[in-house]
Amino acid sequence: MLQSVFDDVRRMNKRQFLYQVLSFGMIVSSALMIWKGLMVVTGSESPIVVVLSGSMEPAFHRGDLLFLTNYQDEPVRVGEIVVFKVEGRDIPIVHRVLKLHEKGDKNNTVKFLTKGDNNSVDDRGLYAPGQLWLTHKDVVGRARGFLPYVGMVTIYMNEYPKFKYAVLACLGLYVLVHRE
Known about the structure:
Layout: H1 2-11, H2 14-42, E1 48-50, E2 65-69, E3 81-84, E4 93-102, E5 110-115, E6 139-147, H3 152-159, H4 161-177
Antiparallel strand pairs: 1-2, 2-6, 3-4, 3-6, 4-5
């Protein structure tokens, strides 16, 4: 099967091969433009995230795809679901705002505490050492909508690298077989 794919590629003339490479480049660049456009419209550095754990059940399950916004002028509210990054961790966390702490200084600084709905304690154990509260700068976005379980493909590709290569091989095969 794989050998027939390589044979097809070898039989292509330079123009056909270049056309395939350019088509692939157009698809990739279109996806990047859509992503950057979503970043501008939503105000979030990551407008779409996948829930990676069961800490927010029953509200969100592992594999749910969340749509985020992060408008700077909107105040954080108790009960709101935020996605935040903690210093020293690469993967953002999806949890609910549990408490607000408003300072009466000239900047009207608002700090907040989060907790997963399915967790028994707040998130202070997840924050950076010495950090007791989150601020707006820690927020990647706020959940505005979701698609259930659509992100499971992403989870499988991260947990099972061979699955990732199988998906990429199938996509490549599909493109080669269905070309004109």
